[in-house]
UniProtKB/TrEMBL annotation, chains A, B:
Matches recorded under SUPFAM superfamilies: lambda repressor-like DNA-binding domains (SSF47413), Periplasmic binding protein-like I (SSF53822)
Annotated HTH lacI-type domain residues: 1-56
PANTHER family: LACI-RELATED TRANSCRIPTIONAL REPRESSOR, XYLOSE OPERON REGULATORY PROTEIN
Name of the protein described by the UniProt record: LacI family transcriptional regulator
Species the sequence originates in: Hungatella effluvii
Any Pfam family matching the protein: Peripla_BP_3
Residues covered by the HTH cro/C1-type domain: 1-36
DNA sequence: CTGAAAGCGCTTACAG
DNA sequence: CTGAAAGCGCTTACAG
């Protein structure tokens, strides 16, 4: 079944059928619309989108891009589709785009070449970069794509000032400011910060929030209280053990990922500390897992759903009008109080 | 840059360029190949896949389908891209398909119409149904698609005997047989089974494993020990409370999802039981979260990665040859021992 | 309100 | 080993 077949059955030209399918009703009489639609229904016709894409030079496909990393140890590669942050975003993205007539193609890319090939292969209408570091890693490539093709691109948590790209972040500084403040307000004085933030702009912002809270309350920012571990479960365990073993009498800590906080709780326990009795812990992300632990984790919520929704609103507007007024938005952040902290007051 | 442009620059016909791109080297001289390739490189040419798709009537796109459910309470809909089981599978699927020259389009579908429109819209080369219940829910639709278009389709955990569809399951019966046996071997006598298995073939298989283990060891299958709660965290909490409140002196239980087991631990604790001292718990799935709880969860691993890999092997073979010898495979299952059970011996 | 023609960028027989 | 032509299924000016 093609346009041509439908046109013949209906006794009209292909162009007329095309017009009714595309809702250009001003150009077709009501009777014709009626007739054509009934034939379409009867034969269960569905347009071939490759053909349409070829003529209108736009596919209505949006590429959702995730980085592809090579693992040094065993030669395999990892993508990030199973990262909980990434996969909740994909759910929202798919829904919003589907509701607006777009299709989503997912792809892990290793290099800038991979990326640009994909974009041009399919005449992609836009691209969404799903992992924070991507914004920086592919910065040149992204700027090139945007410049050449005027292609809508959305980034998350990137440091870009290119007004052509959409960028949605959260208030990372405030996140750790809030968690640190929360502990200070409950009488904690020796508060650790756990993350290898150096060289990572996003984590550095969070660190700045911690530092600001410590300094403004006169506690100061003791370098010994900074534990440089990366935000994974395993590293968290190591950090937790280190804290338990330290002579600093740390009573509370803030970190930059729930997974890490969960590891820290485990490591601290293995080191003999009770949570929260001996050590208060605050995570970051408010992932579902943060409610599955014992004690349930107090954490910073960056409202991932809203983040994705905001980005999709902007993307759809750019797709529609070619322009968005405010392409860079920063979302607020809040503390979710659960059970992993103790007040010393 | 199109084929035509490249052909002109190289001073050959479009067809020759096409042949070198598609590796039909027998039809082109080495010198020509050399020349054409260098021009392609120089101008950074990338073929338009919509056009190719249109002529060869195959897109190299594989649809990854997830169900779209309407929530009764608030009118919104949920897809399952953020389900940990689904998202780990997507990671593997994307990798295998990408490595073999395919593209993956993800889509949540509500009805059989949604589905068939998508398939035909894009001339999809194959479809993967990612959520267990899908196999049954869209059974007619799937059979129709397969019959009409001879389209490779892969299902997981489905009850189908259609030899045209690929179906990868795990040994569900054995899963709960193993977990139940494990408790029996450690002296447990009152062992509960938690799941609303009735009407659900997959969960019924797991229940049968539990029952077989109980009966073969002479403990029998006491209906009072069956707790009919669905496999979610919230329902798990309710089940845990119910078990804590019951007069049955249950000392151990098996269930059909880690999330549910985690809820059960929480509910049981709220009901005053210590895990595993008063109650041993075994989960199912071996999700990452099962290592984040306290105590870490003993559980049944169904090796999700292998499941997805096996399915992709079969799919790729079917895509290549149109046929697979053994389209229905059942994978083995194993118990992963951690900390959530206690031996009574 | 409707139609005939050209064209999007590719591949596939068919000739040479 | 290479090429000219037709065609995949659609949409877009251009005419009427």
């Amino acid at each position: 079944m093609t346009l041509k077949d439908i046109a013949e059955k209906a006794g009209v030209s292909m162009m007329t059928v095309s017009n009714v399918i595309n809702g250009k009703h001003s150009r077709v009489s009501a009777a014709t619309i009626e007739k054509v639609n009934s034939i379409i229904k009867e034969y269960n016709y569905v347009p071939n989108l490759s053909a349409r894409s070829l003529t209108i030079k736009s596919s209505h496909i949006i590429g959702v891009i995730v980085p592809l990393d090579d693992k040094e140890d065993n030669g395999t590669s990892v993508s990030y589709f199973d990262n909980p942050y990434v996969s909740s975003m994909i759910g929202v993205i798919e829904r919003e785009l589907r509701d607006n007539g777009y299709f989503v193609m997912i792809r892990a890319v290793r290099s800038q070449d991979d990326l640009s090939i994909l974009m041009r292969n399919w005449n992609v209408d836009g691209a969404i970069f799903l992992y924070p570091r991507l914004g920086d890693r592919f910065e040149d490539s992204i700027n090139a794509i945007v410049a050449e093709n005027h292609l809508p691109v959305v980034l998350f948590d990137a440091r870009t000032d290119n007004p052509e790209v959409i960028n949605v972040c959260s208030d990372d500084r405030k996140g750790c400011y809030l968690s640190t403040r929360y502990l200070i307000n409950r009488g904690h004085k020796k508060i650790a910060f756990v993350a290898n933030y150096e060289g990572n702009p996003l984590l550095t912002d969070r660190f700045e929030g911690y530092r600001a809270a410590m300094e403004e309350s006169g506690l100061g920012c003791d370098p010994d209280c900074i534990f440089s571990y990366s935000p994974s479960y395993e590293e968290g365990v190591a950090a937790g053990k280190a804290i338990a073993a330290s002579a600093l009498k740390i009573t509370g800590l803030v970190t930059t990922a729930d997974i890490c906080a969960i590891g820290i709780m485990e490591g601290a326990r293995l080191g003999g500390l009770r949570i929260p009795t001996d050590l208060s812990v605050i995570g970051y992300d408010n992932l579902a897992v943060s409610t599955y632990t014992t004690p349930k984790l107090t954490t910073i919520s960056q409202n991932v759903i809203k983040k994705a929704e905001t980005a999709m609103e902007l993307l759809l507007e750019k797709l529609r009008t070619g322009y968005v007024e405010q392409p860079h938005v920063q979302l607020d952040v809040e503390l979710v109080e659960r059970q992993s902290t103790l007040s010393l007051l």
